[in-house]
Amino acid sequence: MSEPAATPPPADPASAHRRAIGIDVGGTGVKAAVVDLATGELVSPRIRQKTPQPATPTAVIEVIGAILDELAADGYLDAAMPAGVGLPGVVKDGRLLTAANIDRSWVGFAGREALEARLGRPVRLVNDADAAGLAEVAFGAAKAVAGTVLLLTIGTGIGSALLIDGTLLDSTEFGHVTFRRRDAEQWISGSARERRGIGWRRWAGEFSEFLALLEAWFWPDLIILGGGVSKEHAKYARWLKSRAPIVTARFLNTAGIIGAALAAGGDPAAPPD
Hints:
Elements: E1 19-25, E2 29-36, E3 47-50, H1 57-73, E4 83-87, E5 91-92, E6 95-96, H2 111-119, E7 123-127, H3 128-139, E8 148-154, E9 158-164, E10 167-169, E11 178-179, E12 182-183, H4 184-188, H5 190-196, H6 200-218, E13 222-226, H7 233-236, E14 246-248, H8 255-264
Helix pairs in contact: 1-2, 3-8
């Protein structure tokens, strides 16, 4: 499933270093596009396919490969263009050390090597919420913001990125802190709200408790909300409470794609994969 974009860019070798492929692997969808690294703009269609179930490495890599095959067939890729892949878990040395909303077989799997073999290009792995943080600090709501910025992506789970004066502390995974005697995302993620059948007012009250917990630890100067739930901000904003100001992510659900591309393109703020 793709969205309209501009016509394919000309095959100009000099422009290759200014573009990279961003891939965002979520609990329900795998999304990808080509990103202009100078502006953060998508310069190809944004293509989305459903996340396979179970989301094993082999199945997810094949979906990613199919999406990039489509982009290549339509003239948006070149052989030198690197790819960044945002994954839901702690990323170290090209592998996941934890797996949230993705199959446990990813843990310890040589993901970077397998993706490079399938895609035939350099690949960099990054935590999915960290990717969103890179996008927001480069072009969005966290750009030029001094102090501590906390970004939370709320959807199937809860991802987090913590930035201090624009520098990312990678793989924080605050969605897995204990809240009401369970992983926070099991109680107050977007999917948990739907599963529990509660309205926005009650959800916002409980999410405010979660924010108070994080604020007591990190004292952020700004809180940014992204992910699928951020698109519904008007439905719950009046009931959210925090010490720090709360804003929505500029890029909402595309931040992961943009940030993954930035990581692939060598953004100095990106953590090593």
